[in-house]
Design goal:
It is built from 5 helices and no strands. It folds into 2 domains: about 1-35; about 35-100, no CATH class. By secondary structure, the protein is mostly helical. Helix content is about 75%, strand content about 0%.
Length: about 100
């Protein structure tokens, strides 16, 4: 029989695991389910996005770094800004991967 602390820790840990599982399951379901009108809209707008996918990938990454600057610390181009960042080969490759080019 464990201490009160070990039982509380086990219960808390189990609850966190269950919570993480529920969140992942919900995100997975939300990611897979599109309404018919969303599918139609996606098909209509994709042709406009498809024309400039490499710049869209760059804009997405820049927006992520703008909203959460600490994420940039995980990339090899973390010290670069402005035009030097946009021209960095690793940044460009990541932006291509982001949009699936």
């Amino acid at each position: 029989m464990g201490s009160l602390f070990s039982h509380a820790k086990e219960r808390s840990s189990r609850t966190r695991k269950e919570f993480r599982h529920d969140v992942k399951a919900q995100l997975h379901m939300n990611a897979l389910v599109l309404s018919e009108s969303q599918k139609v809209l996606l098909r209509k707008t994709w042709k406009y996005l498809e024309v400039d996918m490499n710049n869209i990938g760059k804009m997405v990454l820049l927006r992520i770094f703008e909203r959460k600057p600490s994420i940039k610390d995980y990339f090899p181009f973390r010290k670069y800004k402005g035009e030097r960042l946009l021209a960095h080969h690793t940044f460009i490759n990541h932006s291509y991967r982001w949009v699936g080019i």
